[in-house]
Amino acid sequence: MTLIKSISGIRGTIGGAAGDGLTPLDIVKFTSAYGSWAVEKSGIKKIVIGRDARISGAMVNNLVIGTLQGLGIDVIDLGLSTTPTVEVAVTGEQAAGGIILTASHNPKQWNALKLLNADGEFISDADGKEVLEIAENSDFTYADVNDLGKVTMDDSWLQKHIDLVLALPLVDVEAIKKADFNIVIDCVNSTGGIFVPALLKALGVNTVHELYCEPDGNFPHNPEPLPENLTALSKEVLNKRAHLGIAVDPDVDRLCFVCEDGNMFGEEYTLVAVADYVLQNNLGNTVSNLSSTRALRDVTETAGGEYHASAVGEVNVVNKMKSVNAVIGGEGNGGIIYPEIHYGRDALVGIALFLTHLAKYGQSVSNLRRSYPGYFISKNKITLTPEMDIDALLSKVEEKYMKQPHSTIDGLKIEFDKEWVHLRRSNTEPIIRIYSEGNSETVANGLANKIIADIKEILN
Known about the structure:
- A seven-stranded mixed sheet has the order 1-2-6-5-3-4-7, with helices on both faces. Strands 16-20-19-18-17 form a five-stranded antiparallel sheet, with helices on one face.
- By secondary structure, it is an alpha/beta fold.
- 38% of the residues lie in helices and 23% in strands.
- Helix 7 links the parallel strand 8 (182-186) and strand 9 (207-211).
- The chain has helices spanning 24-42, 57-70, 83-92, 125-136, 157-166, 173-179, 192-202, 231-239, 268-281, 295-303, 314-324, 347-361, 365-370, 390-400, 441-459, and strands at 3-6, 9-13, 46-51, 74-80, 97-101, 110-116, 151-153, 182-186, 207-211, 244-248, 255-258, 285-289, 307-310, 326-331, 335-337, 376-383, 406-407, 412-416, 419-425, 431-438.
């Protein structure tokens, strides 16, 4: 059993002993800590919650609601929802914050409490540490019987979220209708099965083939939207002679596409394509994390904007986007962050912008993909002994490549013209993750192997 307490929330596997898994006692403790912190921070006694469709969701939901009520906090329960929907609902309801009950792309035995501040954004590093400290010290007091919180069920935010997407100036419903798209969707039997068909209908897409859209939490495959997990979607795109396939993860904040020929568009290129469309209409800066493809930088600079890199993690991307006033940003895992609607990864916004872009482009999805710089990312890791000083090791690698452009805001990223390698330590195990990118798989792997050889030489 696993329980991971981090600054962004608490996640773990269901079952086991308290403190070893995500048990009812752990859920109550961390909900108590977060609820106490949110009220203290904002002075508001109202919190929004929503959940994905995973099997443990109802159980976790009941515990979270009861705990918040016990703290004297009113609860707006969105029921089956998405991460971005809860985010926009927090500000819409003027709440103290929000809790999303989802383990995102993790398998069905996992669940988590994702914690939001009053802006509907993930809590900061400092705020997360405060919540963990409150939990550690059990520093919370429950309300007496006359001051218990009230619960309001509110399923109106599906439509409200879709309306916010449709109202975006760069979403062109008429262009999408005119394109008469034939689309296959894979929603991994979670809440995308409710939200994605509703969005597509609102966008005027009449031909939608639903694959795994029953929101019962029985994931038909590993729920992370990676190529090896989307073979059924790829086959169905070919079978239905569809224009494209769309896949989302269980909480609908990650998005990827399948081309009409059954090949993957590439989750790294979800952000590249959407950013290309946004930049054509609203020139400005872009942001992605250090481990994301260089293609975003290429597209941004070609358009006349400036690209900026952030440390890995959605909070870091958002902070950098705010500091450079970015018009679009996100992560290479298919996460689109479009500030015009809110500062959070949102697959619904991504779908609407991508389909508008595709409709105006007027050619196939595979042709659109070929219009972007072609890069390949290789992902490797080195396992070290627990007592190894990883920071000292990274410093020695940095010293060796001091003359190359490099960044140390998150591990070590070294650039070699249009190729790069990013080394960063894992937060949970004694390993160094090594991501490298080149214009082919051979080049990317060669660069990774070169750095791995350097590390082995240093260790010897």
